[in-house]
Amino acid sequence: MTFSLQTTVTRRARAAMAAAILCSFVAVSAASADVLVPGIDSAPTDLGLFAAGSYDITASGTVSLAGNGAPLMVTNPDGTLPSTPLIPGFSYLFPNGSPFDIPDGNITGPGGSTFDLGALLGTLNPSPTSAADFFLIGYGTEIALSTSEHIYALVNDPVYADNSGAYDVVVTAAPEPASLTLLGVGLFVLWTIQRRGPASAGGTAKATLVSRSAARSHG
Q1: What's the confidence (pLDDT) of residue 193?
Q2: How many domains does one find in the chain?
Q3: DSSP 14
Q4: Burial code of 32-69, b = ≥16 C-beta within 10 A, e = fewer?
Q5: Which of 79, 105, 202, 214 has its CA 20 to 30 A from that of 41?
Q6: The domain containing residue 197 runs over which residues?
């Protein structure tokens, strides 16, 4: 009976250890945010405060850079255009986009001459002062934070008042190599417990039978 109890305790301990490892992996991977970044906002939108680590940032949806609610100049998160703008003079933007607003004086958005109009930009500065403060999010990018910081996002455009629509931005913690190793260990332990389950049960039954036989012979 002692063997049976020890086997049960050992299996439970292994299962608890595997569960703890898997819970740790889930906790590491749980940091996330889903935020709408309106095209009309001239100030960066706060996506949230994130701990040090690596994060995947993805974006979807469209915004219109003109029309006051009408989709007259629709752009994708990377600054490309799905259709020719319906505003005279802006057809040059279709389909690959451009950093320059030529009809309004060849001006650029906060991203300067580096990033296309309508592109979704990221920054770690709540009040960016130059194009160097931005990085391209587009449809997706990865960023590494050395310390706990806020991540912000902004649509690149020189004029915001007539914009409409929003990009849906999702931030998710990117699994670190150590976290993936923990996941592998946890899955391996669970697999081992499952594989050895019948054998351990058989061994327990035999050990119990031997113990009872010995007790009877002594009795």
Answers
A1: 62
A2: 2
A3: H
A4: ebebebbbbeeebbebeebeebebebbbeebbbbbbee
A5: 105
A6: 2-26+178-218
